[in-house]
Design goal:
Layout: E1 2-3, E2 9-12, E3 15-18, H1 24-47, H2 53-74, E4 80-81, H3 84-101, E5 107-111, E6 118-123, E7 126-132, H4 133-136, H5 141-156, H6 160-185, H7 191-210, H8 213-228, H9 231-253, H10 258-261, H11 263-266, H12 275-288
Parallel strand pairs: 5-7
Antiparallel strand pairs: 1-2, 2-3, 4-5, 6-7
Helix pairs in contact: 1-2, 2-7, 3-5, 5-8, 5-9, 6-7, 8-9, 8-12, 9-12
Length: about 325
């Protein structure tokens, strides 16, 4: 382990880890956002009291839901973790997988409050792999390698590009929603009402656009299983991830009446295929794998491997019996 010139980074081999960070800063942002949304909701209702009152109440309800959700999140937010044991497990596996996939090695951020077991994202132009410390404690090294392979495929295939496309598409829809409100109700609508309209339109647009992400997840499952050469381990890691996510959501949204109150913001967007379907396809893949590996090298992207898709319902173009699945 070596300290980087950047004091916020700890380097282990070729892999950089975010150094520990407390939760106070993140909690402060969430508390500020709670007050901010509450103020916007009050402005929407009061400012629309004499004109467009119904719009004001709808906007106030939207901001109240956001206020409660953000405030609830602030009670559960944690910080960034680092310890030599976790880093020692992750670094060699991640370095090996990124070398095989011929892709950049992301900076690793281990959090103790993550709602998701693992995800890849960009922050300030930097590629990050965000992992949940609690999830890492539940998986063995085979399962860890498998879930890292899944995320590495997202990096190698530049799936974050489609996330950016989805964001810009959603913003276009949000702008269209605000224009529609202006056209229908004229110029007497307060700014918070336009903001609430944009939020609602963003949610609706994301529901439609996020379904395209299912294809990317199916591909990452299949190619990730090929990259780590262990579909069963990935199926097991996904099963644990599902249980972890359900527990995290239960802590966030809580029992009744919180779950009832937060129901408009507590539903899952359809960004991923059903977990049972993903696990089933990985088990199918494991059943048709030839002994000792998934095939001969044929492609410079994830794993340089060759494998036949278990069915033509992966959301990707169907493959023939001997056609390389990875493109």
């Amino acid at each position: 382990m070596t300290e980087s010139e950047d004091s916020s980074v700890v380097r282990l081999g070729a892999v950089e880890f975010q150094s520990p960070r407390g939760p106070l800063r993140a909690r402060g942002k969430l508390w500020f956002n709670s007050v901010y949304f509450l103020a916007l909701g009050a402005w929407a209702v009061i400012g629309s009291w004499h004109q467009h009152r119904v719009l004001g109440f709808v906007a106030g309800f939207v901001y109240l839901e956001l206020t409660l959700a953000v405030f609830r999140s602030s009670r559960l937010v944690g910080g960034v973790l680092y310890n030599d044991e976790l880093a020692g497990r992750i670094a060699p596996l991640l370095e090996d997988l990124c070398t095989k996939a011929v892709c950049l090695t992301p900076k690793v951020v281990i959090r103790d409050d993550a709602m998701r077991s693992a995800c890849v994202r960009r922050s300030r132009g930097r590629l990050l792999l965000v992992l949940s410390g609690s999830y890492l404690d539940r998986v063995d090294d085979r399962e860890l390698r498998a879930v890292l392979a899944h995320e590495v495929v997202h990096i190698a295939r530049d799936d974050l590009h489609w996330v950016k496309v989805r964001i810009w598409g959603s913003l276009v829809f949000a702008g269209a929603g605000c224009v529609a409100v202006l056209a229908l109700f004229g110029g007497g609508v307060t700014l918070p009402v336009y903001g609430a309209t944009a939020i609602l339109t963003l949610m609706v647009a994301n529901v439609g656009l996020s379904t395209f992400n299912r294809r990317l997840e199916r591909r990452a499952d299949m190619e990730g299983a090929s990259l780590c050469d262990d579909p069963i381990a990935l199926a097991s890691a996904l099963r644990i991830a599902k249980a972890f996510s359900d527990e995290a959501r239960q802590r966030l949204f809580g029992p009744r009446p919180w779950r009832w109150i937060l129901s408009p913001v507590s539903w899952r967007m359809p960004t991923h295929p059903p977990m049972s379907d993903r696990i089933h396809r990985l088990r199918e893949l494991a059943a048709i794998r030839p002994p000792g590996g998934v095939g001969e090298p044929s492609d410079p992207l994830p794993g340089n491997t060759q494998v036949t898709a278990p069915s033509d319902q992966t959301g990707l173009p169907p493959t023939a019996g001997t056609e390389p699945y990875l493109r």
